[in-house]
Amino acid sequence: METAITATEFVFRLIPLMLVLGTAVMGLIVCVNNITAPGANLRFVEHIMTMDTTNMDRGTQWREVRSPVLHRVAFVAILLCELAVTVLGLVGSYFLATNLTATGEVWESAKLFGYLTFIMALVVWFLIIQVVGAEWYVSWQSEKWNAIRDSTRINLITIAGIILLRIS
Description:
Layout (H helix, E strand, L loop, with lengths): L6 H30 L1 H13 L7 H4 L6 H31 L5 H7 L1 H25 L11 H20 L1
Helix pairs in contact: 1-2, 1-4, 1-6, 1-7, 2-4, 4-6, 6-7
């Protein structure tokens, strides 16, 4: 039978909890912004997909998407992924918070939604923003319409969260 966790273990469990909760709150703020003021990020998606601010050449120009319908579909798909980050993060935070003092086995089980939160965060800010946006649509060439710096920051925090959740 396992004994109670130490104060150090408790504190070390708080760290990934704060990262999961922070990711959920960030997702919530992003969702609220995209729902209440969709124009800004919809314009972002439009510029990325039309590639109108990149140094297009024949090797990449064929990738441009000029369909407003597809821009909106992409925007809504991204919003749904951000919503998934939010919901998974809130559920994950709940499970982690309610099991902070649990035995090792119970604590390990409580981590599932935290991992799912971080996976969805990587889907949004790594796969969609960096891989598709920056590389496929070469938005890294745009001075105004690229999110590499912000998504890199978010991805590094997400990776730290995965590592800290795993070793806690």
